[in-house]
Amino acid sequence: MRTMTDRNALIQPDRGQKAVSIQLLDKAGLEPFLKTLGEGQRAALAAQKFEAAPGELAIVPDGTGWYGLFGIKAGEVLGTWALARLAEALPGGTYRLAASPARPLPRLGDALVGWICAQYRFDRYRTESTATEPRILLCSELRAIEPALAEAAAISLVRDLVNTPAEDMGPAQLETEARSLAKAFGAEVHVIAGDALERDYPMVHAVGRAASRHHAPRLIELEWGDPRHPRVAIVGKGVCFDTGGLDLKPSSGMVLMKKDMGGAAHALALARLVMGHALPVRLHLLIPAVENAVAGNAMRPGDILRSRKGLSVEITNTDAEGRLILGDALTRASEAEPQLVIDFATLTGAARVALGPDLPAIFARKDATAAELSAAGGEREDPVWRLPLHEDYRDYLKSDVADIVNSHANGFAGASVAALFLDRFVGEGIDWVHYDTFAWRPVAKPGRPKGGEALGLRAAWGLLLARYRDLNPDT
C-alpha cells in the first residue's frame, strides 16, 4: 500500500551534499537579517510581503541561485508541525536548514516527523497519482533520523488503514496486517475466527456473526518480546464497518464508518513502534475485528449476551457494539496480568461533542498515568484530554434482567459511561488507559491532510518510552 514517495529518503544525513539553504526566522529576527541583504534582495522580499510570520515562505535570489526564508514561532525548539508547511510549499529538491551565529539552529527533534508527514499521499484508488517530486531534508542530528522515520511510518500506517474502504479493510485484512508485523519482528500470532469465537469470545461473535463469510469476525492476538520483561497489553477496537446493526444508523452517520476500526489501526501502529525500537517489554496486542452488519442472525435489542468474563450483558442498543468486543478482549488481556493496558477505540460520539475532533479523550485508573500521558502528548504536539471515570455513573449501567446494559438510556456523560462499561472487564488493580479517539481529520492542517489520522498515538508512545526505554529487567 503506497503512502508517499520513498518515505525513508525524505530525511537524509547531511554529508555536505548539494542543497538549497533554508533560513529560519521569527519576527524578532527579521529586521537584523534584512540589514545583511543587498538592495535587490530586500526588494524581492518586500514584493513577496514576507513578515516572518509562522509558516510563511519567501524566496531570496542569490547570484544564479536562491535560498529560502521560512517564518517560525519565537523560541529555540521546533515543534512537530513547524516544518510541515515548508515541506508542502517547497518545490521538489534537496534542502538544508541554515544556522547562524546570531541564531543557532534549533534542535530538529520532532519537526522531522512533520516534514515527512506533510508529504503523505493516499492515492491507492486514483487512476493518476497525486504524488509530487519529494522534498528531501538533510539533517546533521543523525540520532534524530531513525526515530522520526519510525514515528512517521506509524502515523502513515494509521492513515492508510483508516482511509482504506471497508471492502478492502475488513477483519481478514486486519489479520493480514498483524501477521505482516509479526513476520517483520519475529512475533507470534494466534487467531480465532467465525463460529469458533462463540465459546471463548461470545460478545465478539455476537457482534460480528451477521457479516458475510468474507468479513467473518475474529480475535487477533500477537505476542512479542522476552517473557521476563514487564507485560504491556495494547487493545484496539476493530469494527471494520458499523451499520449500527438493527439499530441502523442514518446514511449521514454511516458514511465515515470505514474509520470505526481506527482503534485497531492505532494499536497496530503502536505495536510496530514497540517492536521496531526493541522496547524491553512483553507485548500483548489484541484486536477484536468485526463488521457490525444487518442480517437475520444479527443480535437484537433485548438480547442478553454472556461475556468471556462471565458477566451477562443486556443489549439496549446494537449500535453500542464496540464496547462489547472490547470487553471480551480486555478480559483476555487481563488474564495474563499485564503491568499496563492501553486500549484505543473510536467509541462514542459523546467524546467528540465534548472535545471535538482533535482531542482524544482518555480515561485512566491512576492519576499518575494520566499525567504521564498528558505530558507525553504535550511534548509531541499530540494532545489528549482526561475525562472522568465517575463512580456515581455506574448506576446508569444497571439492568433489570442482566448484570449490566451495554448502553444507558438517559444520554448523560456518554463517553464516561462507556468507559465505565469497559472498566468492568479490566482486571482489578491493573493500570489501565482507555482512549476514545476520532481517528479522522475533517479539515486539513499543515502536515495533516483530511482523512484518517493518528490522534493520541505519539502520546501513548511517549508514555511507553518514558517508562520502559531505560529499563534493565535484570536489576
From TrEMBL:
Question: One Pfam family for this entry, by name?
Answer: Peptidase_M17_N_1
Supply the InterPro entries for this chain. Leucine_aapep/pepB, Macro_dom-like, Peptidase_M17_C, Peptidase_M17_N_1
Name the GO terms of the biological process aspect: proteolysis
**MF GO annotations:** manganese ion binding; metalloaminopeptidase activity
PANTHER family per the UniProt record, alphabetical? LEUCINE AMINOPEPTIDASE-RELATED, PEPTIDASE B
Family affiliation: Belongs to the peptidase M17 family.
Q: Mind telling me what this protein is named?
A: Leucyl aminopeptidase
Q: Which organism is it from?
A: Novosphingobium nitrogenifigens DSM 19370
